[in-house]
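can u do me a favor
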């Protein structure tokens, strides 16, 4: 988390990070941060009827305040350029994807956050691929493969939901996107349940300067050898 430009709290509840075979965060490649939230069953009726561009506008309005806090903590400022891929939902497989174009101060290439949410009976699995914007095409293909490989155990799938007994989340798919974009957006749209769910996390897992970090480590270890 430190080398990716995130506070240590961003690693809370992270199950693990997936890299391509024979790669690590030292390489110029993507890393997929995996988490799970037992948030309850998330209704998907609003998935494809929401204007997600408004979410981006709200996040951009609150960037100055967020970046002041980041600077005080020694982290680079971030600008959400916009969607690298607008949110879309597959109602047959019950997974949601979106991708953000993020610009870090002092970095040549924009950072790509490619998010996948797989909905289950009692919550959702989150796979957040972190890379650079020039790798969007390859990351999109790899994200699709990861989404296809992940499945819930029998009895825990989205279709196994029992409305009479199971817990239902207080927000839908649109709220899930708002929370993924940041706390400011969730507050703006009145998603109190989302705020409570994500309050202990930094909300955005980001990678600042893959190439710069990798070069620094290679230089350091080459000197040591």
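np, heres the sequence
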């Amino acid at each position: 988390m430190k080398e990716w430009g995130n506070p240590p709290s961003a690693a809370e509840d992270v199950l693990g990070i997936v890299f391509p075979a024979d790669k690590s965060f030292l390489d110029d490649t993507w890393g997929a941060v995996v988490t799970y939230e037992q948030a309850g069953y998330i209704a998907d009726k609003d998935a494809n009827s929401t204007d997600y561009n408004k979410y981006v506008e709200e996040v951009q309005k609150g960037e100055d305040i967020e970046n002041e806090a980041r600077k005080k903590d020694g982290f680079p400022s971030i600008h959400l350029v916009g969607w690298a891929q607008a949110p879309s939902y597959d109602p047959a497989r019950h997974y949601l994807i979106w991708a953000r174009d993020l610009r870090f101060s002092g970095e040549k290439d924009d950072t790509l956050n490619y998010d996948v949410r797989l909905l289950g009976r009692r919550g959702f699995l989150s796979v957040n691929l972190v890379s650079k914007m020039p790798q969007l095409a390859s990351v999109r293909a790899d994200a699709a493969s990861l989404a296809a490989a992940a499945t819930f155990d029998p009895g825990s799938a989205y279709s196994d939901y029992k409305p009479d007994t199971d817990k239902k989340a207080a927000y839908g798919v649109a709220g899930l996107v708002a929370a993924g974009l940041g706390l400011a957006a969730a507050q703006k749209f009145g998603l109190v349940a989302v705020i409570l769910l994500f309050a202990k996390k930094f909300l955005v897992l980001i990678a600042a300067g893959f190439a710069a970090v990798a070069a620094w480590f290679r230089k350091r270890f080459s000197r040591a050898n």
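The chain has seven helices and six strands. hope that helps!!
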